Amino acid sequence: MVSLRLQKRLAASVMGCGKRKVWLDPNSASTLANAKTRKAVRRLVSDKYIRKLPNVVHTRTRAIARYLAKRKGRHMGLGSRKGTKEARFPTKLMWMRRMRVLRSFLRKYREQNKIDKHLYSELYNKSKGGAYKNKRTLMERIHVLQDEKKRAAVLTAELVAKRAKVRAKKEKMALY
Fold first, then answer.
1. How many domains, the chain?
2. 90-142, pLDDT tens digit by residue?
3. Domain limits at 39?
4. Distance from CA of residue 45 to its chain's centroid?
5. 25 exposed, middle or buried (CB, 10 Å; 0-12, 13-18, 19+)?
6. What is the CA angle 113-116-164, rounded to 5?
7. In terms of pTM, does the model score above 0.70?
8. Is the separation of the CB atoms in 49 and 76 below 8 Å?
9. Inter-residue contact 51 to 17 (CB < 8 Å)
């Protein structure tokens, strides 16, 4: 059998790839052996006697499977952790996110006139003090406060009506 080392080297150079990616047609070894120049090798490449092999696929299937498992919480036990709890997810970051959520929620409610500026101020300061752990608890507190406000308004209206009724009765009695 003829040695085709030169042809392989020239073909790799011509096609711009490594020698392991060069495929030489085994049935036409004598034709390939005659190609001693780059020009001849180029002709053989165009005639498909010499071809460039495709890149080997490096599968990511296992990596993807592991990533999906990690999203579910697998492979995240004590033995897999490097770094303290604070280093992995800082409490400051958690606090900042919570404050931003609560403050944007309060701002939105104030702009929509669901709460007045006084209630906004009170709730803002309380949330800064850590009174509400999430948006849901803050929303519940707003509803409770508004219900109390409505109840107080109803009671004052009833009281005013009662006073008016008593006053009217007194005036009526004074006429006699």
1. 2
2. 999 999 999 999 999 999 999 999 999 999 999 999 999 999 999 999 999 99
3. 5-52
4. 49
5. middle
6. 105
7. no
8. no
9. no
